[in-house]
Amino acid sequence: MRNPRALASAWLPLIAVAQNSTIDLSWHPPSKTWINDLGQALNSTGTHGFYFNGSALPPNSSYGTYNWCNMPHVRREEYPEASEEYALEYVEVVHRHHKRTPYASNTFPKETYRWDCNDEGLFYYGQPLNPSGNTSASAYWSVFTSDTNPFAPSGFNGTCQFPQITREGLDDSWQHGKDLFGVYHDLLGFLPNEIGDKVTYRVTNNVITSQVAGILINGMYSPKTPTPLRIQPTGIDSLEPQYPCPAASSLYSSYGVSSTAANWTKHLNEARPLYNSLDAISGVASDSTDWHKSFDHYYDNLSARQCHAKSLPCSINDASKCVTQEQADTVYRLGQYEYSFIYRDSPQSLQAAVGSFGVFIAELAQNIRDLVSGKSPVIYRHNVAHDGSISRLLSILQVDVMVWVGMGSEVVFEVYSKGGYGKNKYIRILWGGQVLESSNPTLGKVDMLDLDVFLSYLDGLVGSNASKVVEYCKS
Ligand SMILES: *[C@@H]1O[C@H](CO)[C@@H](O)[C@H](O)[C@H]1NC(C)=O
Ligand SMILES: *[C@@H]1O[C@H](CO)[C@@H](O)[C@H](O)[C@H]1NC(C)=O
Ligand SMILES: *[C@@H]1O[C@H](CO)[C@@H](O)[C@H](O)[C@H]1NC(C)=O
Ligand SMILES: *[C@@H]1O[C@H](CO)[C@@H](O)[C@H](O)[C@H]1NC(C)=O
Ligand SMILES: *[C@@H]1O[C@H](CO)[C@@H](O)[C@H](O)[C@H]1NC(C)=O
Ligand SMILES: *[C@@H]1O[C@H](CO)[C@@H](O)[C@H](O)[C@H]1NC(C)=O
Ligand SMILES: *[C@@H]1O[C@H](CO)[C@@H](O)[C@H](O)[C@H]1NC(C)=O
Ligand SMILES: *[C@@H]1O[C@H](CO)[C@@H](O)[C@H](O)[C@H]1NC(C)=O
Ligand SMILES: *[C@@H]1O[C@H](CO)[C@@H](O)[C@H](O)[C@H]1NC(C)=O
């Protein structure tokens, strides 16, 4: 059912732009697939062709396939080249960091094995930028515990910070950079040979995005001099996103995680037997709210192991009781269902995403305008972010089929001109390396959409300089 008028909520008017096209700012539901069909998420088997067991796909699977451990991105082999009349003018990439250990909060109370990271160092130090100043040693973190420290870590023993990008995740990051460079530099000749003032990188306040950025930049440029990673101050970061928006947080919890809405709790209730068997193995208390308000923790816990070819966990008390692949697959299906519910199926999802990620959207619109007006020399912006960033971005773009965005998930905005510089401008959006399809009729298949229409869609939702976001967040 796609009736824009019927679904438009009161706070989202239709607005008109100069080109006499009507901009539809209302929410439109995603397509019906197994992902947002509770019966199939709960009661089917397998993972419907989605992969969860390593960065490399099995032979003969096609590259665009969903792979939680290493999602598809722009690369030369599959890149849909625009027709010759279009000239590329600006690219902005937003992607999730690559694969990592689980977060400490997603580890079982007691783990049955160690997880070590001494095949990599986390380099963390300050160094004067003045070239004639004192310099720093290339010092890195080496995680240890001691027999004297009576507080044993919860979850895994070992030499990782939980979370940290793993050695394989670093290699995936390098490849991601190399693949993007293969298209935007080697194939299209769009990127300059040096980073200079045309290329910038941005990270969030979570260190794992910096871990990805450093090696990704070497996959692209191997620069001989230090490269700045742009970052906003703690607490107001729009990319993570971190700025406070109480209205959006309470809207999310009114219909999704933590809500008592019947259509949210239904899958949790029906999955009670699954929870009981997982809890019996993990040692998670049956009344633990964190583990039972969504499948997030079990999903992260199980998938992080499988992405690193580690076995599914067994009970600490009874080594014969282990999580089965069937149970893990059900957790993965339910994780997809939850992400689709939270970020797309719920009619409130658009407003919640606009509130919590709208500042980044306003920045994106401004970045494009600054390039078009000649105010900024930057032709390529690269943002390393999180699933919470990419999910909200896809929520705002109203992607037609939502998934839980896996490791390295990527959205690319490409701005083109036709008929010479300064002439008509167009936008194309790539999701997983292919043209993004939106359920919103104004966006549709975002393949050379009039740039003014796109900017009007963004402005209409977030206001100029995010004015509507500020207003909403306070409400
Ligand atoms: C704007 O579009 C409407 C509907 O397509 C059309 O009826 C109208 O004539 C157009 N106006 C102009 C000024 O082009
Ligand atoms: C899943 O299967 C169980 C057992 O057959 C059934 O009771 C339940 O209604 C099914 N759930 C959905 C959402 O179809
Ligand atoms: C990975 O998962 C796929 C699909 O579930 C399966 O066919 C394949 O055998 C698995 N590979 C490994 C190494 O477990
Ligand atoms: C992979 O595809 C090739 C060519 O289509 C085929 O010959 C081969 O048997 C396939 N291998 C597997 C493991 O399916
Ligand atoms: C999974 O949960 C178990 C039990 O809490 C925990 O020990 C383990 O560290 C977790 N693993 C991951 C990868 O999160
Ligand atoms: C983790 O370390 C603690 C304290 O040293 C030890 O008691 C426990 O057996 C270790 N667990 C594993 C899985 O190695
Ligand atoms: C290094 O630091 C010392 C102590 O502050 C200072 O005296 C010296 O000038 C610095 N060296 C350079 C090259 O800046
Ligand atoms: C959940 O139920 C509410 C209240 O009935 C409804 O407005 C909303 O559309 C439902 N959400 C989904 C994703 O079906
Ligand atoms: C946003 O604010 C800045 C500074 O006040 C201003 O220069 C810019 O024009 C504004 N952008 C828009 C789209 O209104």
UniProtKB/TrEMBL annotation:
A Pfam family it matches: His_Phos_2
Alphabetized UniProt keyword annotations: Signal
Signal sequence interval, chain numbering: 1-18
GO molecular function, one term: phosphatase activity
Sections of the chain in a coiled coil: none
Family: Belongs to the histidine acid phosphatase family.
Protein's name in the database: Histidine acid phosphatase-like protein
